[in-house]
Amino acid sequence: MVSISSISRLIVFCIALCGFSVAYGQPYQVGHITKTFTDAARSNRSVPVEIYYPADVAGDNKPFAAAYPGKAPVISFGHGFVMTYDAYANIRDAVVTNGYIIAFPTTEGSFSPSHSEFGKDLAFVVREVTALGAEAASLLYGKTDTNNCVMGHSMGGGAAFLARSYDPSIKAMVTFAAAETTPSAITAASSVNAPSLVFAGENDCVTAPATNQRPMYDALTAACKHYITIKGGSHCQMAGASTTCSFGEATCTPAPGITRAAQHATINKYLVPWLNYTLKGNCAAGTTFETDLAADGAVTHAKNCTLCSTTGVEVGELSTGFLVYPNPAPDKIIVQSDREAVSRIVVSQVTGRVVYDARFSGTTIIPSSSFPAGVYLYRISDGEAIVAVGKLLVSH
Question: How many CA atoms lie within 13 A of 110 on its CB side?
Fold first, then answer.
């Protein structure tokens, strides 16, 4: 008879292997659709959006990737001042080929944009694209996860802070050379407690880190936040070539100290693993992110947490005698023990808030249907000793 300990080791190995394959070994093609949403809450405001998603064949209106496992997290991305969505092909391709849906609202592209309305657009688009997963006629039917993220560059980065302050249900935030906005993104950051990744360019002369990204990062109340400064990186090189962005950057100093390709490579090195950890619960990706960050001479960084770590024990390590499944968990978590002694299991959000705490022996079932979708940590203790820890993704 196969023991629980043998099964648990096999499951951990398979989860790690499958996570690696999806993240790095099975890139998808980029499908595309155009939609226009109407926000009834803002006098029927029209919000046109360009949406990109994993597909087997690249192009417009292609079917969603047939072999995609489960549902894909949704990302809403805000463009920079008088920049167009297609300037962000580098970020689009990086995330979509690794299994994410990304949507670009094309509003507020004039020389007198409303930062507040743009922030509301970003939050609105997250909800509307996610809702397409419930529409049988949509190419995204059954494929949108409730784990989501708001992103943006320059003005769009500042608007991402506003978006998260308007909608606390947004699960995560990533910004690139974020610019101060009206209303203030720095002020809005104090209400942002979602996991956050803030990129800055050392040679950014358009939105200087000292007066833009660093104050935003410092004001964040997130229990897990990271700040990465790309050495020699510039404002415009966060994106692809843009005449309007380059025109503004040419009027100030310092000039970029690295190539655009090098800056993009650094962004991708951290963006995809961070997303894979934060939105997909991929522990190996979190470890890769932290290991690379600690050793990378091309960046400097600040942080208040370590991905994929709890009480000094690597998340995902199971001691002999416990089996916790399924993962992802849609509506219940099953915990099995081959020990006769009573153990205690505590399940908490990544912010540290405990959502379940109980004692058990043998088999117990945790009803996860009431948990908000997201990444959770669990620890099992036997008396004072922690005997098993792990990470679970709850996805309804």
Answer: 6
pTM > 0.85: no
* DSSP 8-state assignment for residue 318: B
135 SS3 class: coil
Q: How many CA atoms lie within 13 A of 172 on its CB side?
A: 28
Residue type, 362: G
Mean pLDDT per 10-residue segment, the chain (396 residues) = 39 36 63 98 98 98 94 96 97 97 98 98 98 97 93 98 95 96 98 94 98 98 92 98 91 96 98 90 83 97 78 43 77 82 86 83 87 85 77 78
Sequence letter at residue 321: G
Ordered structural domains, the chain, with CATH: 29-67+70-307 (3.40.50.1820), 310-394 (2.60.40.3080)
For residue 309, give both structure tokens. Answer: 């770590």
How many Cβ atoms from other residues are within 10 Å of residue 166's Cβ? 18
d(C-alpha 233, C-alpha 388), whole Å: 42
Among candidate residues 353, 390, 389, the one with its CA nearest the CA of residue 371: 353
Q: Tokens 């949108």 — which residue?
A: 144
- What DSSP string runs through 364-396? EEEEGGGSPSEEEEEEEEETTEEEEEEEEEE--
Q: Which residues contact 342 (CB under 8 A, 6 or more apart)?
A: 359, 360, 361
User: Three-state SS for 362?
Assistant: coil
Q: Which of 151, 155, 150 is nearest to 81 (CA)?
A: 155
Cis check for the bond before 168: say yes or no (omega within 30 of 0).
Answer: no
Stated as kind and residue range, the H or E segment containing 284 is helix 283-295
